[in-house]
Design a protein that fits this description.
Number of helices: 8
Distance between the termini: 23 Å
CATH superfamily of the largest domain: Response regulator
Low-confidence stretches: none
Radius of gyration: 18 Å
Mean pLDDT: 92
Number of domains: 2
Structural class: alpha/beta
Shape: elongated
Largest sheet: 5 strands, parallel
Number of strands: 11
Strand content: 15-25%
Strand order of the largest sheet: 2-1-3-4-5
Order of helices and strands: EHEHEHEHEHEEEEHHHEE
CATH class of the largest domain: Alpha Beta
């Protein structure tokens, strides 16, 4: 999953970047609201973490602009003051949730995961399709309750497909959601990841877990 962090405190920005990357997220960074607005217009994100007190364009105005542009990315708003008026203003501007500084890393991670699941229509952190089970809290995948040995990017591909079970996902869309902005976007790599996933999920070719729709992309087998 791809996350945008918008924070002008460079130390906190780097801490959040490190924290989310350690937990398997692809991360883009912005230190002011104007840069963030540009990134929102250029890239699809599964979630954004936005500080209220941003330079150039504050967090409230940034939210209003992206919602006006019909950008529906879930937004977790960070506020330095525990004022109910500020929380209300943020929610009215289009935030999906808020967190007051200072916060515990575990709480931030829990809120991030919950917002991403909610946006995908997945309330349960355990996502199941037939014999495939995804534990989104621990970034683990199982087949017939046996833990799979997946690389980080294999897990990301499977997670995105499982989060969008009825959608045909193109190679371009997968690439945009599992890599950050600095990666050389080669969609052919996606074919390699999907091929490896098929072998690990279905070594005997019995359940056909991932469908290929020629010229369109991939989809979790709806027969599961």
């Amino acid at each position: 999953m791809r996350v945008l962090i918008v924070e002008d405190d460079s130390r906190l920005l780097m801490q959040l970047d490190s924290l989310l990357q350690q937990h398997g997220y692809s991360v883009d960074l912005a230190d002011d609201g104007q840069k963030a607005y540009f990134l929102f217009s250029e890239h699809p994100y599964d979630l954004a973490i936005v500080d209220v007190g941003l330079p150039v364009l504050d967090g409230f105005e940034l939210l209003r602009r992206i919602r006006r542009d019909n950008i529906t990315t879930p937004v977790l708003l960070l506020t330095a003051r525990d004022r109910w008026q500020e929380k209300v203003e943020g929610l009215d501007a289009g935030a999906d949730d808020y967190l007051t500084k200072p916060f515990h890393e575990e709480e931030l991670l829990a809120r991030v995961k919950a917002l991403i699941r909610r946006a995908s229509g997945q309330a349960n952190p355990q996502i199941e399709r037939g014999p495939i089970r995804l534990d989104t809290l621990n970034n683990e995948a199982y087949i017939h309750d046996a833990l799979l040995d997946l690389t980080a990017y294999e897990y990301k591909v499977l997670e995105y497909l499982m989060m969008n079970p009825n959608k045909v996902v193109s190679k371009t869309e997968l690439t945009e959601h599992i890599y950050d902005q600095d990666f050389d976007l080669d969609s052919n790599v996606i074919e390699v990841f999907v091929g490896r996933l098929r072998k690990k999920l279905d070594p005997d070719s019995q359940i056909k877990p991932i469908e290929t729709l020629r010229g369109r992309g991939y989809r979790i087998n709806r027969a599961l």
